[in-house]
Structures are given as C-alpha cells and as structure tokens.
C-alpha cells in the first residue's frame, strides 16, 4: 500500500509541473507575453492552494475514496482542455483547474498516515512523499522529452489518460474511509482559521516550507529559460537530462522522515534550510567557463531539491503527530500556505528573469531560504 500511495501521489502531483520547463513554447503558442509567462505555473499553484483550502478539508468529512475519484476525473478533463488550448486565457483557466483537481494527492497522504503505526509514521510519510517529490521532479524531464519528440500538447493528453487510470486503480484498491461526521462543510472551513490560530507548530512549519518552496519555484521556473538561452544553448532534451539529475534530491525524504522519528527534527530543519541557501549562493559566487557553470547549476539543483524535500517531510511528520480527526485540515492548511510561497516564487522568478536576467533570479531565490533561516533562529 505504501508503494501504491507513493506512485499515485507522484503521478497526480506531476500534473502541476509538466508546464514548468515548457513555459517558452506554451507562451509562444498561446500568445502570452514573456513577462507574464510565469502565470502558466503560478495559476496552477493558485488552483492547488484553492483546492487545499476548500477541497482537502472534505477528507475530514466525506468518504475519502469517493473524494479522490471525483477530483482525479475532473483533473483528467482539465488536462485534455489544456492540450487543445490555442489562446492564453483558455490555457490559464485549464491550468487553474488542473491545480484544483490535483489536490487529490493531499487526500491520499493523510490516508497513508491514518493507516500507519505512530512509531513509523514519519518513515511511512517520508516514503510516500518521496513518490510525490519524484513526481514533481520527473515531471520536468518527461515533459521536455515528450515535447521534443512530439509537441507540448502531447504531454497533457498522456497525463489525462494516466490520471484517469490512477483514479480507477485507487477506487479499486483503497479501503473505504468514512470520517466521523461531526460538523457541516462551512463549520469545517471556519474551524481551519481556529486551527491556524491555535497550532503554532503548523504556522512555523508552513513558514519554513513556504520560503523553501518559493525558492524551489524561482529556480525551476527560470532555469529552463537560462539553459535554452544564448549562454548555454541547450535543447529541450538537454533540459530534460538536467532536470532528471535533480531528481536525486528526493533521496533526502525518507532519511529526513527517519531522523524526525528519532526526535531530530530541529537539526534536520537547520540542514535543509542551509542547503536551500547554498543552492543559490554557489552559482552566484562561482563564475568560470560554460562547462563549469553548468556543473555548478547541476549541483545547485540537487542540493536545492534535497533541502526542499527534507524540510517538507520533517514538517509533515510534526503535523501528522497531531490528532487524526483534524489531520486533513492541518495538511490542507500546511500545503496551501507553502504553495502560496511557491506561487509567489514562480511569478517573481519569471518577472526577475525578464527584467534582470539570471543573476536577478539567483538573488531572489537566495532571499527565500535566508528569510526561513531568520525565522528558524527564533525557534
């Protein structure tokens, strides 16, 4: 079941990131201005935030398996709409809908926590989140390779078919989970504000991950533009290989989860945030020839992904230690808050790249983990 959860969450969340390395061809095909190209990623993330706030809490109210099925089938329809979009407004609306439906992954993750034993919950969540992070990281190279071989439209058609397949497999394999009915939907939503006010660990962990995910979005939204630009002159297949190397950063997830189970959350957090800052400091400080600069970017991508994944799992381990009856709402709030950081990062990154080139992007990215470290210093 852990393998099923990991693969399913990875395939679902990948839908949010197929467009990340394709913002160049998509914006050209739909007539989107270069300075606004970041909206392709930003609107998907905004949709995800909306889904986290208004759909994921339903995991504490309605039968989880049915909720997952409906969300995934809606996502498949939105992916098909994106594949045939020829105008910016149609594609952006489809991107918003893809983000909303893909929150099914965040109904699956608390499901895994619910089925696992308390003493191994961090390790289990770490394994599931490894699958989720592999989906995020593999989405970029897969999208680039498919776009190179066929077109950018093809990846959305392929993903629609896969998403519908995942929906049917989960419908068949997941056990029924009917939460105890204790409140109505609007009471559920209003309780989230109360949870946010009265759960300091949630606020702190969300702040750390919002900064880390903002840095992650800045880097991955803009690095394909830099790699395919006049300095590196790399093809979409080359971008795919670059993104594929970054996938190795996902190995940090189960390690971080295991350390959190051992009570080492604080030191793991410090390491993760430092890795995030180092990922942007290295390319800012090291300038040489094109080959060395590319090698530095590869190293930066790996340590950034390691920092983001380690911090994410450490935060979720802390949140899932709280009572089971509020777990879906806590997870929805946690993910929504840090995805807001991601949306800010992707929109800022594209604007900075258009206005101040790659150096501006690196400075912007560095600011995010430095803010997180400043907050961490008050813990």
UniProtKB/TrEMBL annotation:
UniProt keyword list: Membrane, Transmembrane, Transmembrane helix
An example molecular function term from Gene Ontology annotations: transmembrane transporter activity
Signal peptide extent: none
Domain named Major facilitator superfamily (MFS) profile: residues: 1-379
TM ranges: 37-55, 67-85, 91-113, 125-143, 149-170, 206-227, 239-257, 269-286, 292-313, 333-352, 358-377
InterPro entries listed in its UniProt record: MFS (IPR011701), MFS_dom (IPR020846), MFS_trans_sf (IPR036259)
Source superkingdom: Bacteria
Gene3D superfamilies for this protein: MFS general substrate transporter like domains
UniProt name for this protein: MFS transporter
Protein species of origin: Duganella guangzhouensis
């Amino acid at each position: 079941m852990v393998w099923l959860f990991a693969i399913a969450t990875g395939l679902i969340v990948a839908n949010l990131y197929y467009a990340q390395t394709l913002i160049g061809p998509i914006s050209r095909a739909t007539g989107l201005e270069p300075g606004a190209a970041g909206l392709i990623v930003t609107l998907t993330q905004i949709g995800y935030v909306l889904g986290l706030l208004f759909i994921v809490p339903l995991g504490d109210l309605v039968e989880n398996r049915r909720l997952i099925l409906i969300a995934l089938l809606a996502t498949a329809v939105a992916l098909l709409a994106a594949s045939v979009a020829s105008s910016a407004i149609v594609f952006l609306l489809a991107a918003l809908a893809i983000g909303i439906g893909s929150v099914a992954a965040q109904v699956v993750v608390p499901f895994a926590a619910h089925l696992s034993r308390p003493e191994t919950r961090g390790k289990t969540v770490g394994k599931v989140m490894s699958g989720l992070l592999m989906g995020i990281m593999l989405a970029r190279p897969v999208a680039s390779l498919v776009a190179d071989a066929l077109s950018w439209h093809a990846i959305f058609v392929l993903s629609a078919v896969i998403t519908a397949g995942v929906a049917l497999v989960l419908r068949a394999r997941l056990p029924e989970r009917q939460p105890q009915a204790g409140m109505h939907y609007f009471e559920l939503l209003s309780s989230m504000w109360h949870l946010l006010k009265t759960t300091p660990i949630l606020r702190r962990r969300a702040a750390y991950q919002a900064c880390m995910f903002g840095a992650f979005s800045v880097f991955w939204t803009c690095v394909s533009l830099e790699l395919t630009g006049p300095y590196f002159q790399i093809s979409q297949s080359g971008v795919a290989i670059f993104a594929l190397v970054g996938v190795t950063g996902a190995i940090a997830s189960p390690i971080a989860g295991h350390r959190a189970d051992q009570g080492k959350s604080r030191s793991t957090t410090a390491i993760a945030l430092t890795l995030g800052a180092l990922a942007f400091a290295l390319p800012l400080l090291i300038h040489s020839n094109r080959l060395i600069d590319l090698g530095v970017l590869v190293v930066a991508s790996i340590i950034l992904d390691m920092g983001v994944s380690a911090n994410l799992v450490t935060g979720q381990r802390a949140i899932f230690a709280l009572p089971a009856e509020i777990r879906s709402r806590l997870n929805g709030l946690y993910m929504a808050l840090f995805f807001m950081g991601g949306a800010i990062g992707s929109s800022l990154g594209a604007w900075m790249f258009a206005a101040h080139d790659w150096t501006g992007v690196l400075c912007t990215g560095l600011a995010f983990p430095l803010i997180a470290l400043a907050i961490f210093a008050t813990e």
